Each structure stands twice: as structure tokens, then as C-alpha cells.
Predict the 3D structure of the following.
Amino acid sequence: MAKPREHWGSKAGFILAAAGSAVGLGNIWKYPHMAGQHGGGAFTIVYLICILIVGLPILLAELSIGRRTQLNPVGAFKVLSDNSSWKWVGLLGVASAFTILSFYSVVGGWTLKYTLLALTGAFNDFAVGDSAGKAFNAFVTNPIDPIIWHLVFMGLCVYIINQGVKAGIERWSKVLMPVLLGILLLLVVRGITLEGAGAGLRFLFSPKWSDLDASAVVLALGHSFFTISLGMGTMITYGSYLSRGSDLVQSALWIIFLDTAIALLAGVAIFTAVFALGQNPAEGPGLIFVVLPSLFPQMPGGAIFAVMFFALLFVAALTSAISILEVVTAYFIDEKGWSRSRATYTFGSIIGLIGVLASLSNGSFNVLAPFTELTFMDLLDKASSKYMLPLGGMLTAIFVLVRWGIVRFMDEIKAGAAWFQLHRWAVTTIFTIAGSVVAYIFVRELVALFG
Ligand code: TRP
């Protein structure tokens, strides 16, 4: 316990690590397929507004709670609330980490498998009919293959997290994030130089308001949350490795800028290709694993771009997954006095096992079968992104408003960002709006669940 807390080596290192957490499957897989199904540009505009009015304040709240206390989410809420039941918000975060990582890692495994398929030229058989869809279905329902890839992916997370904050998370993010940006830019250039790419750009950026219904707005709100890794203490944990002098506002703006830019660029790379090759943009979740693999063989240089695309997806997933595992690890190190390696191996294994059940639920064995039609993997996904994260985010906003206090929050922000002068009532208003908006999503989902 006597060991001093590790800190990030540099500001850029921290920003890249936090952006690495934020940029993930949410940006490259979820955002494009949701925009594709809900009005393209209209969805994008609502999503951008949500990021600013909900994402930014709650991101600042989490980073400042972490930096102030230098602790994991549970310890942080405990310290700032005199050991009251607010610590349950932290525990909810740790529970969300288990829930999210166990399905996220399964999809992470898919990205590895598809990188390999792309490398071996397997997509060449996918150009005709529904062969890509059939192959994807056969893969995810297989009782062994996806589990092996999931465990490899989980093993990589454990390997990185075991190396610690600076030598693990920061070092890997500093390598992987520039790689990710480089690959993405090449894919964007490939996309916009395809003949007929303009239709894809128009689709993504010109709003079709008629396709945007109330449920799409709620989806955009919920997504603005997921994509910046909010609502479960990831940013509290990453903020706890910052020292007091750093400028939180500037860092938060960078994180949000990188996350949003990468989602939009991924949208450009994907929809230019989808439109140029005459495919359906509203394909849904299969857009990435079914439509794209069938498109690559039809475009010039497709074989190499296919490898690049899935490697991109893998890198994005990995830097996010490690941030989720770090929440659990930090909790057991700070609160239970465990060593880093004991915490990573233990919880990497437990989450790995839950992930095995998640993967099996797509095919041979769904533990939920006696109770509902939902697969266990869907349940983990829905429970976390629809209920647990919005609840966590809402409670974080309420915590700043009623327990920690706007004045103390602003003091923490101003340590390192003296230029940031906003009246306390303005900040109170912003937090009230952000909290209410998230409360609205949460209640709406609850009503939908029971109604
Ligand atoms: N933000 C990541 C994405 O867009 C996922 C993620 C990582 C996450 N850590 C999180 C989501 C914590 C919610 C909470 O894919």
C-alpha cells in the first residue's frame, strides 16, 4: 500500500490514453450503423449536440473527481462524501465494467479473426450473394472459434494492464493511437476517391429529418455517453493518474475532439464505399462484419484496405477495453490492497469466463434461454448501455450538484485552468440540464422496459 500512486508521463500521453478509451467500437462500428439507420446527417447533428451539452460536463465531472481524490471510483465517491452511500455509484461503475468488458472483448475477438481473414484473402469469396452474411453467422455461432479469439483479446488486455499506467496504458496508447489515425486517414482517402463517393458524403452530412424519430434522439443521447466512456468511472480512474497542475478543460476538449473527429472520419470512410458500390446504408449492426467484407473485393486495392480496416477496428477496441479493465484493477489495488498483477489476472480470468458465456449465447448455448428470447450477450450490452451507464452518469451529475458542490468542483477545475471562468450559476445550469437529459433517457428506458 505504501507505493505512491503512478502518474501519466506527459499530458499528451494522458490525452492519447483517454482518447484511446473513448475511441472504440462505439465510433467505428456503432455510430456508422446507427447513423445509417436513422437519417444520416440528422442523427449526426443530434449526436454532436448531445456530446456538447451532456458529454462535456460529465467528462469534466469525472476527470475532476478522479484528479481531486487520486483514487478509483469507489474510493473517490467515498472520500468526497464522507464515506456515505454515494460509494455505491462507484460500485455501480465497477459492476458496469464487468458487464461491458465481457461482451466488448467478444467483439474484440471478432475484429482479430476478421483481420486474419482479410490477411488470408478470405473476403474474395464474399463478393457474391449472401456469402459474407452466412460466413459471419457461421463464425459467431461456432462454439469454439470466437471463444479462442475472445480469450486472445482478453489476454492482450491483461498483458497491457499488468504493465501499469505509464509502461502499459500510456506506452501502448502512444503507439496505437497514431497508428489508428494513420490507417483511418488512408481509408478516408480511399473512400472519397471512389467513383460515386459523393452520395455517401451527402447521406452522412445532409440531414433527413423525416428519418429521425424520438427513439433515434434517445439513441443519440445514449451513444454520446458510451462513446466518451462516461458513466462508469473510467474517466475518474484515468483522471486519478493526473497531477494537480494539469489543465482539465483543455484535455477534455481534446478528448472530445479526437473522439468525434474519428467517429465522423470512420463514417466518411464507410459510407463513401457503401454508396459507391451500391449497398444499403441501413444494414444495421451487420454493416461492418457483413457489408464491408463483401465490398472490399470489389474495390481497387481492396485486399490491403480490408486488412487495414479490421486492424483499425482491433486497435480501437483494444485501447478501449484496457480502460475498462483498469477500473476494476484500480478498485482492487486501492480499496483491497491487492497487487496489480493479482488484480489483473484474477479479473481478466473472471471477465474472460463471463465472455465465454456471452459468446456461446450467440449459438450453441444461451444461459438465458429458459427465461427470455434475448441472448446473454445482448443482455450484457443492453443492460450496460441502456440502464447502467445512463444511471451512473445521472448520479455523477447529481453528485456534483448536491453533494460535492459546484464551488468545490470549479475550484478543482481551476487548478491548472485558471483561465476557465464561468459563473457558478452558469455551471449549475449546465449540470442541471446535463443531469436532466440523462435522467430523461434513463426513465424512458425504464418505462419502455416495464411498459
Ligand atoms: N468508449 C468506448 C467506445 O466508444 C467504449 C468504452 C470504453 C466505454 N470504456 C468505457 C463505454 C466505459 C462506457 C464506459 O467503444
About this structure: The chain has a mean pLDDT of 93.
